[in-house]
Design brief:
Helix content: 25-40%
Strand order of the largest sheet: 3-4-5-11-8
Strand content: 15-25%
Largest sheet: 5 strands, mixed
Shape: globular
Structural class: alpha/beta
Distance between the termini: 28 Å
Number of helices: 9
Radius of gyration: 19 Å
Order of helices and strands: EEHHEHHEHHEEHEHEEEEH
Oligomer: single chain
Length: 267
């Protein structure tokens, strides 16, 4: 996942088990293209203004995409390619509710603090989010999420058809605990694919600006307090009132636990 503060590789609790237990065609990083190449190829192939990107980790790959030069895939540089192809970016990380910010002591969340809270080295990552938000083309709608902890899903036997690598990773990471998992990244991916409503959420705080420092601390600035030059094409996910959040948790549970039929269009 990255380097620790002493230069050692940080390995998750489930990586070795997944590599040894499940079939896969890739064994070394050199066997696959890097993230920028994948982004540029994928964006070049889709119609203008059609792509939605879910950012569920550090912002290094997005920053590298935005800095990328023209190449044989596209004559556009990264900024122009994103402006042409991307409709929405949904970000997992940060704090937007005043009560959450106060409760956290205004600390950076793990994604936006580059894992510094968890023993990762931040060099090469610190400041990449601030850069990405600062140069993002203004026509790209940016949606921010800090609600994943409020939508829970289970991995219990009643909900899981069969084990798979995603299901097993959750179980290993949480020491075989089957209930009450947070849904931070899955929620953002669900909202990116199916929309905010399917994720038990709605878009709110339109026109706010997310001002992020190099260390990942963010301030959610209302429109009245912004400088006129700041981009305002942003909003955040907010939980809906009622049963929608529980329903979103059940959807995530089914996606993590199940082996969907390729003909089932719901997947």
């Amino acid at each position: 996942f990255g380097r620790g503060t002493h230069g050692e590789w940080m390995v998750s609790s489930y990586e070795e088990r997944l590599v040894s237990a499940w079939p896969h065609p890739v064994h070394e990083a050199a066997e696959v293209p890097n993230a920028v190449a994948v982004y540029r190829r994928a964006l070049a192939r889709v119609p203008n203004g059609s792509a939605t990107i879910a950012v569920i980790g550090f912002a290094t790959n997005i920053a590298a995409l935005l800095r990328s030069p023209p190449d044989q895939v596209s004559p556009l540089d990264g900024l122009a390619l994103v402006a042409a192809k991307v409709k929405t970016i949904i970000w997992q990380g940060g704090l937007y509710d005043a009560a959450k910010r106060k409760a956290s002591g205004h600390r950076a969340t793990p994604n936006w603090g580059c894992g510094g809270c968890c023993g990762y080295r931040v060099d090469g990552c610190s400041g990449e989010l601030a850069y990405s938000l600062g140069v993002m083309p203004s026509n790209v709608a940016q949606v921010f999420s800090d609600v994943g902890s409020s939508i829970r899903h289970s991995l219990g036997s009643s909900g899981c058809k069969a084990s798979g690598p995603c299901h097993e990773a959750y179980l290993i990471q949480d020491h075989q605990r089957v209930a009450d998992h947070g849904s931070w990244d899955p929620l953002v991916i669900l909202a990116a694919v199916r929309g905010a409503a399917a994720a038990g959420c709605e878009l709110s705080d339109f026109g706010y600006t997310n001002v992020v420092e190099s260390n990942g601390l963010n301030t959610w600035v209302p429109p009245s307090a912004q400088e006129s030059s700041r981009p305002k094409n942003s909003s955040r996910l907010r939980l809906k009132e009622g049963p929608e959040a529980a329903a979103a948790g059940r959807i995530i549970e089914g996606l993590v636990c199940g082996r969907p039929d390729e003909t089932d269009k719901r997947w």
